[in-house]
Amino acid sequence: MAKILFTDHAGTTREVEAKPGTSIMEAAVQNMVPEIDADCGGACACATCHVYVDDAWLGKLKEKDDMEESMLDFAEGVQDNSRLSCQILMSEELDGIKVTTPESQ
Question: Nearest-5° angle of CA 3, CA 6, CA 12?
C-alpha cells in the first residue's frame, strides 16, 4: 500500500492508503476525503477531483494528456501544479505523495 497525504484548503491533513493502480481520486472517495467530489466517477469528464500536487512530486507523474488539459479548463484556481486526481495512478514510487485540494471544486 502507498500513502497519500491530502491537505485541504484550511490546512487539515489526512493520510490514506491506496493499492498500486488505484487513482488518487478513488482513494479519496473510498476514504471520504472532503473536497474531492468526483462527479464523473473517474472518467476524466469533469474537474471535480482537481488537486494541487506538491512540487516535489510533479516530476514523478506522467505528463497531462490533452483530455486532462481540456478538463482543467473547467476547474477554478488552476495553477502550474494542478492535476485531476483521477488521472494519477498510485505506485510504490508515489508512496507519500502530497496533494492539496482547492477551496472549491
Answer: 130
The two beta strands, 2-7 and 97-100, are parallel
Reported as a single tens digit per residue, the pLDDT across 2-22 is: 999 999 989 999 999 999 999
- Closest by CA to 54, choosing from 21, 23, 79, is 79
Q: What is the pLDDT of residues 71-89, one digit of tens each?
A: 999 999 999 999 999 999 9
* Sheet arrangement for strand 97-100: 13-18, 2-7, 97-100, 50-53, 82-84
**Which three three-digit cell numbers place residue 74?**
473547467
Percent helix, percent strand, percent coil in the chain, to nearest 5: 25, 25, 55
What's the pTM?
Answer: 0.95
